[in-house]
Amino acid sequence: MKKTKFKVEELLPFIILLLLILIFSITTGGKVFAPNNIMIIIKQTLNVIIAGLGLIFVASMGATDITQGSLVAVCAAAAVIVAADHSVVLAIPAAIVIGILSGFFLGFVNARFKVSSFMVSLAILIALRGLVSAILGSRSVMLPLSLMKLDETGIKLPIVILLVLVMGFIFNKTPFGAYCKGIGESENAVQFAGVNVTKVKIMAFMISGLMTGIASLFVLARVGGSSNVLGIGFEMRILMAMYIGGVPVRGGTGTKIYKLIIGAFMITLLESGLTITGASGSYTQMIRGAVLLLVVYIMGVMQRRFSPQAG
Question: Is the pTM of this model over 0.90?
């Protein structure tokens, strides 16, 4: 019965993606797959994948980090200001360091003081959005042309592939990745095995912050400048990409990076297809929510139907 479970649950993200491709091929008359639109889909998807590669470590523990949108805005604001006042070279580490520090603080409060990761990240999300407004005010700051080259597919795609390989190796082939998934399965069991769970949690959130800091540079390059509304809703797109792709909410060994990647393409394709068909923003949001609920429901049914107990 476990073999059947693997086939159904592991293939479900690919089945849903194929259905979306078929639906939008028909409803848009193939316009969604025009060369220009495909490039747009790829570029938007890559930003979600980058940030998601960090969040996957947190999600595998059954925890949550919803700071990505606000953190992208803070990292981007710091990057453009450093680039303008000091050096373009220093802008990149500035964004990354801020991301890591944010992740460290979130992980420290969650792991050391046993505060819900959702509540801590919600508080940080609000605080960071206020910090962006304090830094930039109502003005928008343009990015130097040299950094805008990061949005070029020839530069962006190889970097993302490298990040996928590195994060994939850490997540799947190292003890740290196993500990993260083990915490999602049973935190007490991992702790009884002698693993420093607090350290693992903090490091997982730091990796999430690191990847969000890197993602902020690509979001910044795509938009061309920083403002206090940059990144709004970005965290929701990442979470939807994971859960539509079949990443279990509870974490554990069912957390797979390929599910994130497939889910990222699904959410971007869904948004692009709805836009081309003429759906308004409000309808797009409702459909996204409905699709997410449907997929989570199907995954729940599959898990109950093909679990060992059901047999």
Answer: yes
